[in-house]
Amino acid sequence: MSQADLLDHDPVFQLKGSMLAVTVLELAHNDLPRLDRQLAQKVAQAPNFFRDTPLVLALDKLPDGEGQLDLQGVLDICRRHGLRTLAIRASREEDIRLATMFDIPVLPPSGSSRERVVEAKDAVPQVTGAAPVRRPRGEKLSEKVVEQAAGAGVQAEKPAEQPAETKHEAPAEASAEPTAEAQEAAQQDAAPEAVPEKPAEPPVPVVRPTKLVTTPVRGGVQIYAAGGDLIVLAPVSPGAELLADGNIHVYGPMRGRALAGVKGDTSARIFCQQLAAELVSIAGNYKVAEDLRRSPQWGQAVHVSLSGDVLNITRL
Asked: For residues 262 and 94, what is the distance between their CA atoms, to the nearest angstrom?
């Protein structure tokens, strides 16, 4: 085996999934001069935070009837203020077309699904007992599936062949009217048997796992609690990042970043014994250190919650 063959067995790269905290700029109005002014004011509050910040530009919240967006102008404004646009979230066809021209990845709108259930108008007849058809948007059913389903529909519509009837002539003396006893027996035979209903199974409780960290979290370390809460029983250094789908508890000085409800849970909370954070965020709504230092709760044990789009910081 040659040296080249040996090197081919040693992988050069590895693909991994990662949960990254990315800033999302949701554009509410097609007004570039006002965007430039307001973004400059926001960046002036925390210039270090916005320096070379990765950004997802969300255009799916733009109201209808505001005209075509100057996407190149928006990108230039963001770049001028230190924001680096990685992708665009859009729903309008013209915005998606412009993003494609600029070779910028397009993400689906917020809350959308890539799958859909087949509607009744385009669904094929199903074989008895088969599960409902569910397929990705735009995917066509294979010809084999269509033929099988069509065949099943034809069989269902075709009546079953009846056995040949044998006629017997009743004796002349037989009564044309059945007796009351015969009618009652016929009704009992025709009545279907009552099938006892199966009791409904109780719903399975959803268990939210809690991630527990007992050692100090140093700068540059990122800890993510997927699907649950994060509890840290040690100090969190500057440059460290805590992320959780649920709540975050820090029983020590909190000097890094804390992002709770990263998948949109607005009921998530942040608890820390000493607030000295670079950033706190709940469901994408955040405050940076420059804002936090103005709060009288700076350096205190606090509880952070979200009301609408406003972060509330109260002393514990």
From this structure: 30
3-state per-residue secondary structure call for 100-131: HHCCCCEECCCCCCCEEECCHHHCCCCCCCCC
C-alpha span between 133 and 120 (Å, rounded): 10
pTM for the whole thing? 0.48
* CATH of region 211-315: 2.160.20.70
Confidence bin at 308 (pLDDT 50/70/90) = confident
Domain boundaries, given as residue ranges, for the chain: 23-107, 211-315
Q: Where does 23-107 sit in CATH, by number? A: 3.30.70.260
Place of tokens 């009921």: 267
By the 8 A CB rule, do 227 and 244 touch?
A: no
Question: Could you report how far apart the first and last alpha carbons of the chain are, in Å?
Answer: 68
Task: For the chain, give the percent of residues with pLDDT over 90.
Answer: 34
